[in-house]
Design brief:
The complex is a heterotrimer of chains A (260), B (334) and C (379). By secondary structure, chain A is of the alpha/beta class. Chain A has helices at 36-52, 67-76, 94-105, 127-134, 188-196, 243-256, and strands at 2-6, 9-11, 17-18, 25-26, 32-34, 55-61, 80-84, 112-116, 139-149, 152-158, 162-169, 172-176, 200-203, 223-228, 237-239. In chain A, strands 11-10-9-12-8-1-6-7-13 form a nine-stranded mixed sheet, sandwiched between helices. A two-stranded antiparallel ribbon of chain A has the order 2-5. In chain A, strands 3-4 form a two-stranded antiparallel sheet. Chain B has helices at residues 22-38, 56-61, 79-93, 106-116, 230-240, 248-252, 283-289, 306-309, 318-328; strands spanning 9-13, 15-16, 19-20, 42-48, 65-70, 97-101, 121-125, 127-130, 137-143, 148-153, 160-164, 182-184, 197-203, 216-220, 243-246, 273-277, 294-299, 312-315. Chain B is built from nine helices and 18 strands. The chains are: A alpha/beta (260), B alpha/beta (334), C alpha+beta (379).
Chain lengths: 260, 334, 379
């Protein structure tokens, strides 16, 4: 069984803070991590590898430093890693990104493609389904449970108010939520192997078959017109008093605002 | 792609068990407003196996026309038949703008459709406007975990598609005199479209109260100290006729469940009253509740960032303050 | 001279920290309070390769090096001194001598499961009458023809009772002095071997420290480790490596207490401001940080020398001496800066201070380290 896992290296947006003076993001010193939804997908692939001796290939489209995320995936147990990197890919929106990734995936043997639901920087949740569309594959998103029997997958798929228990035939694509599992740690031997025994294969634009018109910023139907940090709201009144007084202050305020 | 051929706003009307989802009504309101600005119509697309709800309400909120596709494969959501139907309507009628609710259905369907139509898609939009000069839609949405807002445009491709966050677009201007115009649409489905098999549908229990519908929320953060403290918050919620919600940390700790999670990856809420109890105020949480009408924060740590957003900040121990508050609150009739 | 860590070591450090934060830190207080050996943690440590870090893969190890091992003990000890010493005693004092002096059969039989963490190891040198004067071994090993017969007792043995494999020193020929001591690999199940009373200790309370009793203990002929009469050398060289482990433990304790203190002094307010704003606090922290960093450099240097297969005995002794004394000083200051709260068990710093004291004593007291260092200078 061959599994391709798409991962993205992202800044840990949980650690990003706003500079209160300038209103801009402080990006320095924010660690880069494997996007949590993708990491869950990788763990799901590794579980299938443990059970069925599957081969796991991790793929990422990103700048050269995304190598570290791939090494982490290798250290967790992935077999192969591919870094899809080229200046020509820069500025891609989700459409162009999915076109590029799909072009790369066409070069790989796969039964199952796993992508995380959404990245914690872009927050779009679009790339996975768009890859499935370009490869003309059935997709199931928001996978909560995953099992395999021969060339069928048995999946529990989560909605806000219900779950679907689904059966589908491979080849197909699934997107995973971080809540799907507890990803394993890298092992000591795994880390040594990731840097000394295993290799990260680099593919550039020349290695994939794709129209120039579909690449990068130029190939993106959407673009960012502007971005800004949200205005910091004027703080309300603060009180540091004993409990009974605090309760009275709250009550008075609620009455004042006609909430009660 | 000849852009000038594309006209009108199309709203994907989401249904579950035949009932129209609230977000679709919010999107019809917004669609009406955008259509008015563009001088065009606001239409809807409803995919269903059996209609089970009052469709007239959609027209009261602003639809000019509703396309309905009825087929047995459209009851429970499946990506392919839905994508095929929506794409069919889009190719036939060439809308300039298409709205989907950013629900788990919408965010699964929209990328598939936009990719099939080779057009752009913006995710999880929280505000919309029309650019005066170009008449392009300006779609603003949170990114970077909610740390920044980005305004996206899709200048050269049509339709301009976006998924829109539920609970954000206001429902205004109901016009009950508007007449319904329902057009049934045939889509050439084949058996191959049902490429996944739904073995079972399991609905979540009815105890799951939708926090986005509550007008008062008492929200728990890690600072409450333990799951037993939720009872205290529950008592306050009862007194105020509200519900208990929580930050992501509390859900991750297993004290509450995902349906109660407020925040960037949880639910966005806009209650009249939001109590942040033992919540530090991480930006991902703020993203989900900062539009609340009145925010009261109680926290032992006077440097907690939540105090910068709260309308009323109480530095103190919630275990002392909340019981005092419950004592003096009048009993509320709803 | 490059002080940077390689990519592999940086990634290892990241993994060690995540593991410690999630798996070790939450249990530290309970392990200490209940004097509980963290069995479940040891299983997880084994799964991720912590129990055989510096050993080659062909022997079940992780194929990393002594620097990686030192860093692991450091990171674990930041949260829990007990967990750090479990890994250290197992790796340096039991698995390592088998790796250095074992026959191929012994390595396959014992080193592989030890390195994989399937079995836990321990080391038996210290006796009621032989502490710093380690040469005064009274445990005897008699050659019975087809087996060895061991009689005697060992005290203060780390990991005892949970360990499956013990490297034990015994006197084979009293007339030869230190050259009459030999090393043996003893399994828990060998007839005549038992674990005696468990010590109640000031610190590292979750670490099992017990007596070993050998009463006509039958040890197979092939379990002699190294040559007859080589036992003292085996023990001394083993302790050299063990010193790197203990120095790492001390380093971790110092750093852990410093990290806690930095957090605390930013939050604690007196006289209308955070105590971090007072110069005394700042100066104390500066000293604590400098001593900890100095410890780190000594530890890493000793580890790197060992990895380069260069003599490292003096460096290991310096690292152990300095890091343990620094840890005692830093953890004590940490408690002081926490004020009254630091003295209570609600805060971790008092545990770190109690844990730090033993690092000045075991695997060669500070006095012994001074003997080793001065001997090297004065030879």
């Amino acid at each position: 069984m061959n599994i391709v896992v798409c991962i993205k290296q992202v800044p840990d947006t949980n650690e990003v803070k706003l500079d209160p003076k300038t209103g801009t993001l402080i990006r320095d010193g924010v660690p880069s991590i494997i996007n949590p939804d993708d990491k869950a997908g990788l763990e799901a692939a590794l579980v299938l590898k443990d059970r069925f001796d599957a081969k796991v290939t991790v793929l990422t489209m990103g700048p050269p430093q995304a190598d570290k995320a791939l090494r982490e995936a290798l250290a967790m147990g992935a077999d192969d890693a591919i870094l899809l990197t080229d200046r020509a890919f820069a500025g891609a929106d989700t459409w162009a990104t999915s076109m590029t990734l799909a072009a790369a995936i066409r070069k790989i043997d796969y039964d199952l493609i796993i992508a995380g639901r959404q990245a914690i920087d872009g927050d779009t949740a679009q790339v996975g389904p768009q890859i499935a569309e370009k490869l003309e594959l059935p997709q199931v998103s928001y996978v909560k449970e995953l099992d395999r029997d021969g060339d069928h997958l048995f999946i529990t798929r989560e909605f806000e108010d219900r779950m679907h228990k689904i059966k589908l035939k491979m080849p197909c694509l699934i997107t995973t939520l971080a809540e799907l599992n507890e990803p394993r740690y890298m092992s000591v031997a795994g880390i040594m192997d990731a840097y000394r025994e295993k290799e990260v294969t680099t593919w550039t634009r020349a290695d994939i078959v794709i129209d120039d018109a579909a690449l990068g910023l130029k190939g993106s139907p959407t673009r960012v017109k502007k971005s800004f940090t949200k205005a910091v709201k004027a703080p309300g009144k603060k009180y540091d008093v004993d409990a009974a007084q605090a309760a009275q202050i709250i009550l008075d305020n609620l009455k004042e605002k006609y909430i009660i | 792609m000849n852009i000038s051929e594309y006209k009108d706003v199309l709203v994907f009307i989401e249904q579950r068990d035949g009932k129209i989802e609230k977000v679709s009504k919010e999107l019809v309101c917004k669609g009406r407003e955008i259509a008015n600005t563009l001088g065009s119509k606001c239409k809807g697309a409803l995919l269903i196996d059996e209609v089970n709800d009052d469709l007239n309400e959609l027209f009261h909120w602003g639809l000019d026309e509703l396309y309905v596709v009825k087929h047995k494969s459209l009851g429970e959501f499946m990506t392919e038949p839905y994508a095929k139907a929506v794409t069919h309507i889009c190719k036939e009628h060439k809308p300039e703008v298409v709205f989907f609710g950013a629900t788990s259905i919408g965010r699964d369907l929209a990328p598939r459709v936009s990719s099939r139509m080779d057009t752009g898609l913006t995710a999880d939009c929280t505000s919309l406007a029309v650019d005066e000069e170009t008449n392009n839609l300006m779609m603003t949405r949170p990114a970077f975990g909610g740390n920044i807002m980005a305004t996206i445009i899709c200048p050269e491709h049509r339709p301009q598609m976006t998924t829109i966050r539920p609970g954000v677009m206001a429902m205004l201007n109901k016009d009950e005199s508007r007449k319904a115009l329902i057009t049934e649409v045939e889509v050439p489905f084949t058996n191959a479209d049902s490429n996944i098999e739904i073995l079972e549908v399991v609905k979540h229990g009815h105890e799951q109260v939708k926090i986005e519908d509550a007008s008062v929320l008492i929200s728990a953060g890690r600072g409450i100290g333990g799951p037993d403290k939720l009872n205290l918050l529950g008592d306050l919620a009862s007194k105020l006729n509200g519900e208990v919600s929580s930050s992501r940390a509390v859900v991750d700790a297993g004290w509450t469940n995902k349906a109660q999670q407020v925040g960037q990856t949880g639910t966005t809420v806009r209650p009249d009253l939001y109590f942040a109890c033992g919540i530090s105020g991480a930006i991902q949480h703020l993203a989900g509740m900062e539009e609340s009408e009145f925010i009261v924060a109680i926290n032992k740590d006077e440097t907690a960032p939540i105090f910068d957003t709260a309308d009323l900040s109480i530095v103190g121990d919630l275990n002392a303050v909340i019981p005092e508050l419950i004592k003096i609150l009048p009993n509320r009739e709803k | 001279m490059n002080f940077d860590l390689s990519k592999e070591h940086l990634m290892l450090q990241e993994m060690y920290r995540k593991f410690t934060e999630t798996e070790v830190k939450p249990l530290a207080e309970e392990v200490d309070e209940e004097e509980r050996f963290p069995v479940e943690t040891v299983k997880k440590l084994a799964r991720y390769g912590f129990m055989g870090i510096p050993f080659p893969k062909e022997y079940g190890g992780a194929g990393a090096d002594n620097l990686a091992y030192a860093m692991a003990v450091e990171e674990l000890s930041k949260a829990c001194g007990t967990t750090g010493v479990i890994v250290s005693a197992h790796t340096s004092l039991c698995a390592a001598p088998i790796y250095e002096w074992g026959t191929e059969e012994q390595k396959q039989k014992y080193l592989v499961p030890l390195a994989k963490g399937e079995k836990l190891g321990a080391f038996g040198l210290t006796e009621p009458n032989a502490g710093t004067d380690a040469a005064g071994q009274q445990t005897k090993a008699v050659d019975m023809g087809d087996h060895w017969l061991l009689n005697g007792s060992k005290i203060f043995i780390t990991n005892a009772d949970y360990a499956d494999v013990y490297v034990i020193m015994a006197m084979t020929d009293k007339s030869q002095g230190t050259r009459g001591i030999s090393a043996f690999i003893v399994e828990k199940e060998f007839p005549g071997f038992s674990v005696g009373k468990k010590e109640k200790k000031m610190g590292i309370r979750g670490s099992a420290t017990c007596e070993l009793i050998m009463e006509d203990c039958i040890v197979p002929k092939e379990n002699l480790l190294g040559k007859i009469g080589q036992g003292f050398k085996v023990a001394m060289k083993t302790l050299d490596g063990g010193r790197i482990g203990i120095a790492s433990q001390a380093l971790g304790l110092a750093q852990g207490s410093l990290d806690e203190t930095v957090k605390y002094v930013k939050e604690r307010k007196q006289f209308g401001r955070a105590i971090a704003k007072f110069q005394n606090t700042q100066f104390q922290l500066a000293d604590m940080d400098t001593k900890t960093e100095a410890s780190r450099l000594l530890v890493y240097k000793a580890a790197k020398k060992k990895d380069a297969k260069l003599p490292y005995s003096k460096e290991a002794a310096m690292a152990k001496l300095y890091a343990s004394e620094a840890a005692m000083e830093v953890t004590t200051k940490a408690v002081q800066l926490h004020g009254g709260y630091g003295y209570t068990r609600e805060y971790g710093v008092e545990r770190m201070m109690r844990d730090a004291k033993i690092t000045e004593i075991y695997e060669g007291t500070s006095e012994v380290q001074r003997m080793v260092i001065s001997a090297s200078l004065l030879k």
